[in-house]
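Researcher: Next entry in the queue.
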Amino acid sequence: MQGRILIYDDDPVCLERLIEVLTSLGHQVDMELELNRTLSRLERDEFDLVLINTRDPATDEVEAMTRVKAIRPDVEVIIVTGDPSVSEAVTAIKHGAFHYLSKPFKAEEMAALAQKAMEKRMLTIEVNELREMLGSRTGPKLIGRSPAIQRLKKSMRRVAPLDCTVLITGETGAGKELVARMIHQMSPRADRKFLAVNCGALSEELLSNELFGHEREAFTGASHTRKGLFEAAEGGTLMLDEIGDTSPSMQVQLLRVLQERAFIRVGGTEEIPMDVRVLAATNRDLAADAESGSFREDLYYRLNVFTLRIPPLRERRDDIPLFVRYFLDKYGAEFGKNVERVSDEVMGALLSHPFPGNVRELENLLERAIILCDGPTITLDHLPRSLRDQPSCLEVPDSPEAMPSLAEMERRYIQRVLGAVDGKKTEAAKILGINRASLWRKLKRQENGQGE
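Model: Structure for this entry, 452 residues:
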């Protein structure tokens, strides 16, 4: 059972061995030195397990756990203390701690305990997902089992039943509309309409008419009254895609609609009340745009009630085989072809590709390959030349004398991953399945010409 672990420890000197053991088991481990920073981190990110280990006599471990649980009620918590007592242990368990561990302890002992806590956490998630499946309608599905997607699914389940605005961020082709449709399907509004509009594809005049509708004779050619999307989606959900591309005047109109829950048709004078849940999506950094003044700060805060970030495909490479299977089935049936698999070379090329176009790019690649394929297996010949000629970081010469060492192969792969994510070490560490500190140590050893 692999998951994401946050360690709150105000004296991290002796933690290196514990972090090493936990990451070797596949867990993603993060650490904070202060309680307030720990709580802030929990508000931003999803974690499966929190380890609390403080030496500050002014900090009560059970109180710290209570504050953790107030933010993430479903997270598992292990408390470590140097001054154990039966009464405190009972109190901790009563308030929701998974375990109360006294020091000194061995890293392997804590790792085994963390595994058990993770098993409980995963079981809880599976039960919730089963209940969701049994109670849900047929609708869009988010493919993936990677930790990044599991965290996204958990956040979606958390926010879907709540009638609040959601800001969905992600690169082009990552699946923002799919996530919006799933939120709608899991919400109490699922029986009503889901409508979407690409704000960046329309001029301001056309977008205003599309969203708010118009009155008869509002402009030349307006022979009758027309309802806009806010009216058409009454009781349901409206997705404003690429909202970061709207004009300043349109941003003012949208802010007023969200604040007043009412709008005025083009050419009209009467306010029309609305009951519509708004989901906004963008591939831009709206926080930076708001800070620079290119996007209204008040509208950003109105939209940013709850944010969902869709990870790019390069951060969830473990999901690529699942997508391959899905698209083979989908387009094989659509084109009447019995394409059963991709070759190992093709899978290797797909796993090495950075996919700037994300899932949409992968889908287009496989759709094209299935069209070209006349047999049961997609080979490199069915891929575009740019993908076939892509150098692999794992290419090994045939001659045993020229074969690189394991350390050299690791160096090549790390550099390949860093190149794919534009040198962002946090993203690279996620892809590599290690924490940022481990990646930093590996890079320092490579700089110094040392092996592991």
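Model: Confidence is low (pLDDT under 50) at residues 133-138.
Researcher: Noted, moving on.
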